Amino acid sequence: AVAREILSTEITYNRSLTSLHELYLIPLKNAVAAGRSIVRSSSLTLIFTDTDILLSVARLFLDDLRARVDSWSAYQCLGDVFLGFTTQLQAYINFTNNYATTIATIERCQEESPAFRAFLKQLCGQPETQMLDLFGLLLLPGQRIQNYIHLLNSLKVHTPADHPDHPNLDASLERIQQVDNLMAEVRTRSQRERRLEKLQQTIVGVPILQEGNRHLIMEETFAHLKHAHYGFGPKDDAGPIYQHVHDIGMFLFTDSLIITAINNRHFPFERATTSTHHYLAAIALDSIAILDMPNSKFLRHCFALVAGGERWVCRAPSAQVKFAFMSALQKALQAAPVLQS
Fold first, then answer.
1. Rg of the chain's alpha carbons, rounded to an integer?
2. pLDDT, tens only, 236-286
3. Alpha-carbon distance 266 to 204, whole Å?
4. What is the pLDDT of residue 231?
5. If DSSP codes are grouped into helix, strand and coil, which group holds residue 124?
6. Which residue did the predictor score with more confidence, 258 or 74?
7. Average pLDDT over residues 207-226
8. Strands of 289-293's sheet, edge to edge?
9. What is the pLDDT at residue 337?
10. DSSP characters for 210-224?
11. Which of 42, 269, 279, 341 reaches 20 to 30 Å from 88, CA-CA?
12. Are 176 and 93 spatial neighbours (Cβ–Cβ below 8 Å)?
């Protein structure tokens, strides 16, 4: 049953890759050849070269799978077929490494060519593409690698312990898992870069964020507190009194902490608000000291940051948020010397 599932899902995957070639690439190349270019030939190369290579790899793999499954018996093996397939996995690594360029090229072509936008809209939701658009189809190779891992694990479970297929299944699973890990690293790096780009646009006046291997660990909003100097009344034994000055944003990176002032704007007759972050300070992690402030009559969920002669007293919205941020900052402080060495 698992072998049949591997074959049937591989057939579906092949159809999807074939639709990229036949429904998208071929008509666009024909338009170029006829002098009615919808997209430049160079752009087509950037978008479809990797998926065409994946299609060639998938077709050969499908032929090998079909030959084995069609003659299936209790002693039949698939591990060696998968092991042969793993020698072609560099195509998936190349596809993942070029994925950001592929997406950027599609988006640029959409901006430049109304005809290309109409072409994509016409093909969107076709049965041949499993009702997926071009961007959805381009997600399938990465998902298929993860499917292989699930299917191989399932095949191992249903294969007797003394079956000769086990060594090849184990070797295949290990190699595919390695590729999946590499692809996950590329996806994570891309997501981090996009997050930095978004923060660069969100925080008014912030210096350039994309430097080295910097990435965002977490962000949180706190109340910024300062001593209240009222100048009257007896001193309270509960300790000093603080007042809320304004809300601040703290963006914890692998090498620094960026602090912003948050301005909230309210609109007449609406509950909705918009928040704007204005850059206040960037503090290197190796210069930060973090101090816990126990709860008192006037203080709850507070901590202090000391850096460069300044002291930032912050109140978290809850004990959980305080603990999470202080823990993340402490871990970042411990890791910072390692990252900088």
1. 28
2. 555 678 899 999 999 999 999 999 999 988 777 777 778 899 999 999 999
3. 19
4. 47
5. coil
6. 258
7. 93
8. 203-204, 273-284, 256-266, 242-253, 216-227, 310-315, 302-307, 289-293
9. 56
10. --TT--EEEEEEEEE
11. 42
12. no
CB-count exposure of residue 103 (10 Å: 0-12, 13-18, 19+): middle
Q: What is the DSSP string of 139-192?
A: THHHHHHHHHHHHHHHHHHTS-TT-TTHHHHHHHHHHHHHHHHHHHHHHHHHHH
Alpha-carbon distances, residue 96 vs 13, 108, 145, 303, 321 (angstroms): 17, 19, 11, 43, 36
pTM confidence score:
0.78
> Has residue 234 got a pLDDT over 90?
no
The phi and psi torsions of 294 (rounded to 5 degrees) equal -65, 155
Q: How many residues does the chain have?
A: 341
Question: Could you read off the pLDDT of 115-141 as tens digits, one per residue?
Answer: 999 999 999 878 888 889 999 999 999
Could you give the CA distance from residue 326 to residue 302 in angstroms, rounded to a whole number? 10
Nearest to 230 by CA among 220, 240, 238, 218: 240
β-pair partners for 224? 246, 314
Partners of residue 279 on adjacent β-strands: 260
Residue 235 has pLDDT above 70, yes or no: no
Q: What is the DSSP string of 248-263?
A: EEEEEESSEEEEEEEE
